[in-house]
Amino acid sequence: MAIFDGKFLKGILGDFIFKVVDGVQIVSKRPVPGTMKQTLETKKASENFRKSSMLGKHVRGIFHNTNGGMNETSYVFRFTSALTTALTTCENPTKTGYLFKRNSFGNLAGFEFNIKSPVKKILNLKPKIELNQGIMKIVYYESDNAPKLRFPKHATQCKLTFVVGLIRLKDGKRILNPEKYSITLKKNEELINLIDFSFKIPDGCLSIAVLFLGFYNGITLLNSKSFNPAVICDAILSPGTFTNQDNHSWMEMPGLDFD
């Protein structure tokens, strides 16, 4: 039986083994000798894994252009594992389907796109993420602990890009062109007063805020597959039900809805 410790699942659930390695949730298929009839628990675990794989593909698609396709090898597997953990904890105990809350995907906060170049070793303090009345605010407030950006060798400036991806879980759609804001920071320049962005978030959407760091020497991009820092700052589900009253373009996610 798997146990949820508040952040990770540990143990066996259906056909899957959940464990934590170096602070990362890992999900693997449980080897079963011979043939075995699927129990309800096994079917749920299999369905969660299937939906996590599909959802992960679409979320990655939202950020693909900003990420530049420079993905390290464990990125897909680690992200699917994190989504499986989230969906498993959102199972509705009284009926089939899922019971989502504001912070149901909170375990995605801090997810590093590239574990070889984690943002946490480059930026000592992530910005504050707030979602109130349909507005997501990304900001650094004045404090004693000022944000500091560590520049790699030869880098003279850094482009910080904030992107908010939107997922409509209930009807299986995702945003086609996510909203984004960027600033360019020169080496030794203060960051504290430069970050204050607002994104409009429709009701009933999972909003995933991601920070990408692009380092340059002059106009030459220094990022590569082994050095491409990006991190999920937070993932929040906005309250209410989506109504088609916005200017976003949406893309179908065939076979994927959580109604």
Question: How would you summarize what this structure contains?
Answer:
With 259 residues, this protein is of the alpha+beta class. Helix content is 17%, strand content 32%. The two termini are 27 Å apart.
Description:
With 259 residues, the chain is of the alpha+beta class. The chain has one domain (3-30, 37-252). Helix content is 17%, strand content 32%. It has 2 helices and 14 strands; from the N terminus they run ββββααββββββββββ. The strands form 3 sheets. Strands 7, 8, 9, 11, 12, 13 and 14 form a 7-stranded antiparallel β-sheet that branches. A hairpin with a 2-residue loop joins strand 5 (128-132) and strand 6 (135-139). It is globular and about 60 Å long. The protein starts with a strand and ends in a 7-residue tail after the last strand.
- Tell me the fraction of residues in β-strands, as a range: 25-35%
Mean pLDDT: 88
Low-confidence stretches: none
Global structural class: alpha+beta
Pattern of helices and strands: EEEEHHEEEEEEEEEE
